[in-house]
Every structure is written in C-alpha cells, then in structure tokens.
C-alpha cells in the first residue's frame, strides 16, 4: 500500500526475495545508496547514534558554555585533554562528527519526506479503495440479522450509511459489485499530514537555528549604578557577533542603571541571606527619544530596539580612591568585583599605571558582611551577601603592570610577573595587607600615597542579545508539536458498510481496517453499526 | 506554621511509604499466585494478516471476530478474583492519597508548587506515576504492574526522604517564573508515562524470554504483543509531554539565560532522552524492530530518564543546579 514510505516500514509488505542482482552502474549504486540512506533502519540508526554522540559533551566541559571549566579540565588532565582536543570533544556540538551525524539524519529525513508528501497529496485527492470481498476477515467485523430488504431498501441502507459516514468525517465512495452494494469510507488523512508537518518543521528548526547563528550577536556589559551603556560596538565589554553581523546596524539606544535592588531572605531560618529578588532599575532612551523608566529582572528581560537585555549577574563595585603624597587624586572609580560565593565574597583588581612614583596594582577581596572574629577566627570571611559590615582587604604590588606593550589586558586578573608585593600576606617588606571599612583612608607603603574606600555601589552584569531567527524557531517548534499530536493521535482508518444478499434476505455488514496505531477502531465500528442499524430498524446479530 | 506543615507533610509521606510497602507485599503475593496458576496452553498468533494488506497487531478488536479463521491471540484473561491483587489496589489507593496529601502540604508550606528541588520533584513525579497507574486501570487492567509500581515508588521515596531532603526555602530569582510550574510539571507527567511504559516493556521481555524457553506465559498477564502495544501507547503520550518539556524549557531558558539552547548538561540529557524515544517510535515502525528490540529501547530511554534525574542532577556541572543540595 504505502509504497512511498521507506521500503522497510512496518506497514509495507515484506521485501521481495532478492533477485539475482544485475550489475549496478554508477546510477544504480547511487540509487542503491540513496535508498539505504532514506530507509527507516538508517533513520533509526542515525537517531540512536545522535543520542549516543551527544553524551561526551555532557561529561566534559564545553568551550562555549563553560570556558573556565575547560581550562581547569585541561590543567587537571593534560594527557587526556590532548586526545579530547584532537577529537573536538570540548566542542562536541559543533564538531565534525556530531555535525555529520545530524546532517546525514536530516538528509535522510528530507529524502524520506519528499516522496511521502507527493504520495500524500495524491492520496488526498484519491477515492477510498474498493470494498474487499470478505469483510468478515477484517477488524471490528459485525453484521445485522438477515432482513427482507428489497432493492429500494438496500439503496436506502446504502444512502443512510453514506450520510452517516460523511457526517463522521469520512470520505466516502459508493460501490456496487456482484456480491452486493457497499460504501467504502476512509478518514484520518490528517494523521499523515501531521506526521509530514512534524518532520518538515524539524528541518525548519534546523535551518532557523543554522541561519540564526549568522545574524545573532550577544554582548556583555557590566554597568555600575549611576553609569550608562550605549549600544555601540566600543561600549561592550565583550561581544560575539555572527557571520553577518553589521556593527552599523546596531539599534540606537542607551540605558542608565539608576538603582539596583537585591532582596535577601530574613525570616526563614533555613535560608537567611539567600536571594529572593534582584531588580535593576534603568532609565532608557531609544533613538535619542525621551527617557523612560524601566526594570530588568532575572526572568524578565527588557526589550530595547531589536535586542533583549538580560540581567545575568550582579555584584559590588567598591569605589577606590588613591591619592599621591601631595593629596592629588590619581584614581577614583568603582571597580567591579567578581563574586566568589553565595555570600558575595568578591575579588577585584585595581591598577594604577600613572600618577604615583611607581606603578601599583592591588588585589582586593571584598566582604559585604565580615564575620565577627570571635566566631570565625582571624581569617576574614563574609557571612551575608548584604552590606551589613563591609570590609575591603587589599594586597598591594609595585613594579611593572605590563600595560604598555599593547597586549589586551584582562580586567579581572593581575599579572604579577614583574611586580613586588609591598603589602599583604608574605609581602617582601613584611607589611600586612590593608583592611578598609567604608569611608576609611590608609597610607600606602613606601610613602606612595593613600588609599580610601569611598563608596560601595552595586553593579549589574547585562547580557545583550539580538536574535532575529528566534521567532522562526518558535513557529517551527509549534508546528512540530501540532504535527506530532495529529500524527500520533488522529486515527487513520477505513470503514466499509456492505449490503450482502443472502437468498431472499439481506445482511448489512460492517468492518474496518486500522492504518497505524488505532486503539479506538472497534468502538468506532460498533458505534457506526449501532446508529445505522437503529436508523434502519434492523437488529444486530450478536 | 511552616514548620508544622512541613512536619505534617513528612508524616504523610512516611505513612504513605508504609502503606506502599503493604501494597508491594500484596502485589508480590498476587504475582507469585499468577506465576503458579496452571493455565491452558496459549497459542501465540502472528498478527492477523488481511488479504493484500497488513493490519496492525494488537488492536483491541481481535476479540470480537466471530468467524475469523485466524487463531486469535488471547487478550488479557480476566484474572481470577485475587484477594491479594484487590488488597494491593486498596493499599495503593490509600498510600496514594497520603502521598498526594503530603505533597500538597509541602506545597502549601512553601507557598508555591511542590516541585522546585529534587526532593519535591521526587514527591510529585512518583505521585504522578502512581496516579497514572491508577487512572489507566479504568481502561485497562494493569494490576500485574502493581508490584513494580509500588516497589519503584517506595524505593524512590526512600531515597528522596533520606538523601534529597531539603528544608523549605524561598525560590531563587532564576526559578521565579511561571515556567517552573508548567515545564517541571509536564516533565513529571512525561516521566510518569515513560515509567509505566518501561514497566510494561520489562514484563514484555520477561514474557518473551519465557516464550523463547518454551515456558508458559505468566498466567493472566497479557501476551507480549499486547504488552508492547500498551507500552507504546503510554510511551507515545510520555513523548508528547517530553517534547513539550523540551520546548517549554527552551522558552524559559531564553527568558532566564538569554538563549533558548546552549547545550547545558541538562539540556543535553533532555535532548538525548527525546532522541532515544524518537528512535523507539521509529523502531516500532521499522520492520524487524518490533518486539524485544523496541522494548529494549524503551528501557534504555527510561534508564536515561533516571540517569538524568539522579546522576546528572547531583554530579554534573551546569546551569540547572536546582537540586537544592
Ligand atoms: C530528526 C530526525 C527525526 C525525528 C526526530 C523523527 C521523529 C519522529 C516521530 C516523533 C515520529 C512519530 C510522530 C508522528 O507520527 O508524527 C516519527 C514518525 C515517522 N518517521 Fe520520523 N523522525 C526523524 C527522521 C525520520 C526519517 C529520516 C525518516 C525516513 C526514513 C522518518 C520516517 C518516519 C515515518 C515513516 C514515521 C511514521 C511512523 C509510523 O508509521 O508510525 N523519520 N518520526
């Protein structure tokens, strides 16, 4: 029957015995290869292979989602990492072998779906098939008791059956044969339609995602309260553009972070200090328009121009002010610190290349709530993420910061190769580190000047995304889902009603045939038989 | 107030576990009885072939075919009245009511849906497995699965209460979303259907093995074809839920993390499971893959579900660190 399904589909007849193979030409081989590729067995094999191939990427950190994890992993397993690198396991999902599997799968899918679609379009216009000779061999067979119907009665019975089936959504065809008149009916073409839509929409998703990659860009920006961000290439901390990214096409807007509110649990004893809400209050302006007050929260990004702005992180940015011995300010700005734990113990780096007698760098640890030393001992520790008892601990280095050789410098690191520690644990001159409370000023060693912990604003780390194919992917996903449900649950079935002459009497027979999974077939035939026989006043022969 | 509700909730869960244990014993006795009951030799029929076409095996229609020439595959024989099975069902219902009650109380105590960490998810998912098991009874006698269901749920609740337990804490901002309600609940539904499908597949494999060894089928348990059809129907429903979970998860990820797909470990495993079950559905439509092969795939699929929920949650790094442990 469904000759356009792959030949090894369950519903197809068993394959003919392999006849003596004629010698295959190039075309013959290609055709043979294509048939293999588009068979059910291959699809099944590739699906399972794809599932299997996805596993290693979950065992080993991935460069795209966890770059630091990769660095640590490489350090911990240098030998193994070489092998994994060669195999591209740190980039599993863009690796050649992973791509090869899913591309083959999708080629197979297209090769499978196109002929089926053609066949299905024909089937949609075709008539239901002829009524089989012996309905009693079919599913759900039942019959009425013999009744003395004349030709007119039979015609009436057939018309009634035709109308009944029509009303139940069947396509009908009236046939008359030597063995009796009959109605042949078929329904559920939607099942195949759904299945085809499902598979085609999968291709749609793949294409949207594939092309999407070229148009997407994602950028990161750390904004301290009071600071602004303008959507221009130079204002991003980092940006990863797709292939067709055009910096001139960036939507024109700016935003200012006016306030950042973090709320922490204070009642529940099991969760004191765990965050319950983060809200970034921003003032935005699009295309130089009037400023608008808006908010960004963790689960509700802000749409600005053709981008979405997400709140992905936050932390403290201590304002550090450094003065030279004469009291001239050489450095005064908020320095975003990276949170290290749930209580926001944070690390940050202050670099002062100019203005003092020597270049200095400082590694700072910030504790929003210093633990009482009688509880935690001499080592500083933070016990709450909020600013209940903030302390900034600085270790000071002097020497060459290495900023002048034109290499890109990481704001979140300090290269100490050419630096000498002059204050802090095990410093050269045995000067202890500098601990500052908010507003405190202390002298730097070696008479370099002074350092003040002036203020402690919050910062928000924002992710800015532009993805024009997102809606396409969503649309295809909806089609996948709709296709799946129709393809799985709409029953495709054939039903026959036949008036069989038995001597002077007539017996009405009912039977059906499921095409694909159809748990309700018997009940459906029973229902049709009941309605039809009642309408004609016949009794069922049970 | 909260502490009190939490105590009641735990009390209800512990009581449910005790009653599930009784149910397990009753169902096991029932199974033992079934295995020892003599029964007329069963003829294993090939799917009824129809002239010129091939009908799908396992339709419910096979029983009312009055003058069929083909041998009829026996459907599930109405089990002889079994006290043990009935007792098992009663225990299961009582345990389930306690179980659902405990789960709901936990939600009330937390002031939100009771599936925001591994402990709560375990309560909800197992309650759904039992719920599906009970509801499907209305349509199909599945009491022979009772021992499996009660045993599985008992073990899982045991692990959850001893190893996954966490106190009620407020939701972190990343989980404060309507998608938590829908994404995780539908995932539990999918897990429930997959779990019962796996149970049927296990029984199917057992029956098939007995058949291969020339042994009788376990009496009053359906034959392998029928088991396979039932498993397929449950798994297909599970697959629809799983597909939805995958899509809803992508939408949520887009809201929370700014991208709808990033090959995070949990995303990878949800994808792997989805693909295995897509393979299962294909296997059922591929000649030569019905029977023990597709049943094995169903088991591999559910194995991946369990792996995803336990090992991946506890030991793999990723953004979905919601276990609360
Ligand atoms: C990305 C790869 C694929 C996935 C995820 C997939 C998934 C599915 C799913 C979920 C179904 C059942 C849902 C429905 O009937 O609507 C299905 C059915 C089907 N698929 Fe695929 N498929 C894939 C590729 C293919 C390929 C390559 C072929 C052709 C060789 C194929 C042929 C079929 C056929 C014939 C059915 C109907 C099965 C039946 O009669 O029950 N699929 N597929």
From TrEMBL, chain A:
Q: What is its main location?
A: membrane
> Quick one: signal sequence residues?
none
Q: Where in the cell is it found?
A: Membrane
Regarding the membrane, this protein is recorded as: Multi-pass membrane protein
Where exactly are the transmembrane stretches of this chain?
43-63, 96-115, 196-217, 471-491
Q: Name one GO cellular component term.
A: membrane
The biological process GO terms on file are: cytochrome complex assembly
Domain ResB-like residues, every copy: 40-524
Give the keywords, sorted.
Cytochrome c-type biogenesis, Membrane, Transmembrane, Transmembrane helix
Show the coiled coil region(s). Answer: none
Q: What is this protein called?
A: Cytochrome c biogenesis protein ResB
Originating species: Galbitalea soli
């Amino acid at each position: 029957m469904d000759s356009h399904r792959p030949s090894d589909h369950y519903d197809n007849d068993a394959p003919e015995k392999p006849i003596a193979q004629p010698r295959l030409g190039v075309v013959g081989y290609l055709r043979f290869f294509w048939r293999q590729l588009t068979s059910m067995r291959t699809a099944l094999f590739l699906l399972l292979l794809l599932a299997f191939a996805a596993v290693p990427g979950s065992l080993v950190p991935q460069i795209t989602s966890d770059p630091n994890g990769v660095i640590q992993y490489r350090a911990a397993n240098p030998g193994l990492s070489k092998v994994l690198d060669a195999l591209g396991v740190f980039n599993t999902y863009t690796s050649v072998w992973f791509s090869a599997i899913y591309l083959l799968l999708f080629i197979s899918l297209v090769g499978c779906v196109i002929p089926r679609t053609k066949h299905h379009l024909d089937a949609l216009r075709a008539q239901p098939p002829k009524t089989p000779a012996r309905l009693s061999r079919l599913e759900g067979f039942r019959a009425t008791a013999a009744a003395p119907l004349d030709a007119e009665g039979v015609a009436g019975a057939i018309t009634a059956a035709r109308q009944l089936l029509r009303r139940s959504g069947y396509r009908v065809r009236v046939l008359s044969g030597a063995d009796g008149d009959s109605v042949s009916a078929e329904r559920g073409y939607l099942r195949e339609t759904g299945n085809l839509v499902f598979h085609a929409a999968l291709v749609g998703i793949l294409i949207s995602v594939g092309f999407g990659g070229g148009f997407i860009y994602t950028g990161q920006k750390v904004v301290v309260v009071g600071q602004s961000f303008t959507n221009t290439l130079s204002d991003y901390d980092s940006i990863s553009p797709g292939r067709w990214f055009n910096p001139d096409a960036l939507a024109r807007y700016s935003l200012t972070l006016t306030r950042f509110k973090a709320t922490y649990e204070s009642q529940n004893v099991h969760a004191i200090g765990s965050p319950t809400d983060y809200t970034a209050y921003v003032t935005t302006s699009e295309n130089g328009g009037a400023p608008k007050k808006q908010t960004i929260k963790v689960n509700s990004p802000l749409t600005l121009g053709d981008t979405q702005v997400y709140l992905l992180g936050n932390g403290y940015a201590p304002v550090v002010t450094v003065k030279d011995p004469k009291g001239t300010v050489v450095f005064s700005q908020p320095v975003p610190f990276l949170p290290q734990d749930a209580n926001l113990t944070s690390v940050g780096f202050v670099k002062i290349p100019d203005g003092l007698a020597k270049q200095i760098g400082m590694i700072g640890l910030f504790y929003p709530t210093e633990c009482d030393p009688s509880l935690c001992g001499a080592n500083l520790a933070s016990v709450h993420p909020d600013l209940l008892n903030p302390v900034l601990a600085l270790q000071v280095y002097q020497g060459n910061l290495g900023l002048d050789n034109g290499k890109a410098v990481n704001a979140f690191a300090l290269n100490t190769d050419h630096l000498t520690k002059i204050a802090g644990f095990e410093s050269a001159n045995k000067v202890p580190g500098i601990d500052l409370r908010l507003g405190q000023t202390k002298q730097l060693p070696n008479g370099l000047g002074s350092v003040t912990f002036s203020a402690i604003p919050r910062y928000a780390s924002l992710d800015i995304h532009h993805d024009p194919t997102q809606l396409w992917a969503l649309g295809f996903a909806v089609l996948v889902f709709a296709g799946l449900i129709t393809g799985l649950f709409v029953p495709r079935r054939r039903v026959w009603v036949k008036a069989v002459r038995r001597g002077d009497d007539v017996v009405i027979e009912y039977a059906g045939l499921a095409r694909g999974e159809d748990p309700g077939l018997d009940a459906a035939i029973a229902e049709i038989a009941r309605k039809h026989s009642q309408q004609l006043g016949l009794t069922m022969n049970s | 107030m909260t502490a009190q509700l939490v105590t009641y909730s735990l009390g209800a869960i512990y009581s449910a576990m005790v009653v599930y244990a009784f149910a397990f014993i009753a169902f096991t006795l029932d199974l033992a009885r079934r295995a020892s009951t003599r029964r007329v030799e069963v003829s294993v029929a090939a799917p009824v072939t129809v002239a010129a076409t091939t009908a799908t095996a396992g339709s419910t229609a096979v029983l009312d075919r009055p003058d069929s020439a083909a041998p009829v595959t026996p459907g599930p024989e109405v089990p002889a009245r079994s006290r043990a099975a009935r007792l098992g069902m009663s225990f299961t219902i009582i345990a389930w009511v306690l179980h659902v009650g405990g789960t709901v109380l936990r939600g009330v105590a937390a002031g939100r849906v009771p599936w925001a960490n591994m402990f709560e998810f375990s309560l909800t998912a197992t309650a759904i497995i039992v719920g599906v098991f009970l509801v499907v009874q209305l349509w199909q006698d599945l009491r022979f699965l009772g021992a499996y269901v009660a045993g599985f749920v008992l073990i899982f609740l045991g692990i959850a209460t001893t190893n996954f337990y966490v106190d009620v804490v407020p939701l972190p901002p990343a989980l404060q979303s309507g998608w938590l309600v829908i994404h995780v609940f539908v995932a539990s539904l999918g897990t429930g259907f997959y779990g019962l499908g796996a149970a049927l597949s296990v029984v199917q494999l057992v029956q098939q093995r007995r058949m291969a060894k020339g042994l009788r089928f376990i009496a009053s348990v359906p034959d392998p074809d029928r088991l396979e059809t039932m498993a397929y129907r449950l798994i297909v429903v599970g697959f629809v839920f799983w597909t939805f979970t995958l899509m809803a998860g992508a939408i949520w990820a887009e809201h929370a993390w700014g991208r709808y797909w990033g090959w995070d470990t949990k995303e990878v495993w949800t994808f792997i499971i989805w693909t295995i079950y897509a393979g299962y559905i294909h296997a059922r439509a591929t000649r030569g893959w019905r029977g023990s092969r597709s049943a094995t795939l169903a088991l591999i699929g559910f194995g991946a579900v369990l792996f995803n929920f336990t090992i991946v949650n506890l030991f793999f790094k990723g953004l979905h660190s919601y276990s609360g442990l």
